[in-house]
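Re: that chain you flagged

S.,

Sorry for the slow reply, it's been a week of failed gels. I finally had a moment to sit down with the sequence you sent. For the record, here it is as I used it:
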Amino acid sequence: MAILNILDFGAVPDGTTLTTGAIQSAINQAAAGDRVLIPAGRYLTGSLFLKSEMTLELAEGAVLLGSQHLEDYPKIATRVAGIDMLWPAGIVNINRCQAVKITGEGTIDGQGAVWWHKFWGEDENGGMLAEYSRQGLRWVVDYECERPRNVVVYQSEAVELNGFHSRESGFWNIHLCYSHRVFLQDLRVSNATGPSTDGIDIDSCEHVRVERCVVSCNDDNICVKSGRGAEAQRLAKTTSDIVIRDCELHKGSGITLGSETSGGIENVLIEHNRFFGTGVGFRIKSARNRGGWIRNITVRHLRLEDVSYPFMMQLNWFPQYSYGQQVGEDSPPHWRKLSEGVEGTDGLTRVENITISHVTGRLTAPHHFSRAFFIEGAEERPIERLHFSHITLQAQEFGKIAGVNKLSFEQVSVDAPAVTLEKNDAYER
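Prediction finished late last night. Pasting the structure tokens below so you have them in one place:
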């Protein structure tokens, strides 16, 4: 098993010389069992594509800096927010591989500000978001505005991601899609800001473990998904057997199931996680055209501090984004896919058998806003068998619970002295 140092292939550690070719040459040279070493230094790069049975090691002090030019990220077949389409590759890609590792104490830095400004301008009210919204196209702009991800694991098996830091991604930080037996541990994920800068997304995958990760971002910290719309329902790629444990969540929207649910989500264990100043604790979100199911979910032993919405479940989430318009055959393929939701009652996601236990939530200051429960199921297809036990929450508002059959509380204690206000029904992410 050889160690291939990228400096021996001509990589330049100055942070300004594009060194994609040198790093890719080292990867291409690697044989089964070899390790490609990124030593300390700053390396500007576009998309890199790993091989089966290799390890990419990011040494302490090593930084892979994502290029800020879209031409350095070739368009490839992938999935973006539930839609299969052509989209720029990530910075580090594990595509159709097996037995691959990314390890070490180094960093993958997406230098994402250029991509965030492209989406929403420098003031978060302009850019492509404002332009498309004026045309009534809010539902499509996320897919039109191409932004690289930091790490993509696609159609792969037996993958380990261990120890490194992912930061300032242009879009999602770490995206696992159509993959099996993926193990993430001791990762650090951080995004100061940026639209759709999720921490970790688990998308139509099976047998995934996420352990001891620290995530702070500007959207869902850790999200479990299974595709959006009629195409994803036909593909029927269910996300199942997922474990998320011993993680620490800071800024962001918590641990989320959805909103892409069309392939189904089942058998998820979320335990022993800690939340500090997070927008949401445990969250379920879907829309009336997603279909699919969320079932057999166990959430236990959570510690929440200054969390605004400890429990949020919305099955008619963000209509401006969730519901596409009917378009003609001359429209781009991804526009047509977005317009093809799951119709009628089949579009109502089945949510059932959710068990939440041993959760404590506290506020470090009485003025910090918190709504204990914000649960909105569908009247035509309510959430079934939602059980809370051994819950102790400090909050300002108790909140709202609707659209649930067989809701049960066992040893639930809530301090919520303020009136539940309608103005707090909105949550932006």
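What I noticed first: The first strand starts at residue 3 and ends at 5.

Talk soon,
D.
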